[in-house]
Predict the 3D structure of the following.
Amino acid sequence: MKVLKILSICLLLSLFSCKEDAPVEKQDASSGISTFYFIRHAEKDRTDPGDADPELNQRGLGRAMHWAEILNEVELDAIYSTNFNRTSMTAAPTSVKKNIDVQYYDPRILDIDQFKKDNLNKNVLVVGHSNTTPEFVNLLLGEDRYAPIDDAENGTLFIVTIVNGVPSSTRLVFNCNCPD
């Protein structure tokens, strides 16, 4: 009888020890949460219509600092900007405040799938232009939802969140009582 009990226990133990572990799910490139904050550059200096790369005017400098305050509580992992004075200057206060180097991108040669992979599970600020910002947002969304921003509008913030590969967006407009 003792032998039978021992054999039964051994049989039970062998059944449990031979059980295969449950397969570990592999995280694919679209799982997780990524959040993108898109802004257009602040007000640019328009005194020289021939200047293709103007800096920000006084009001634009104030708005750039205002963006840094608005984004103060956001834990950013990366900041992207086109390589123009007005976009770089708009990104600068947030970059300094967050101690994050600005990475430059060219919207004409943007690989959207690679951009999403590079920024998976990150919070990212992207500074662009009246046409490139909504275009970039639309690429992340996979649909043409937003038209170019009016040239007089510098306070638009698009927030795109991608949760497990499914994007959603919000568009907000912030007024700036910045001095001229």
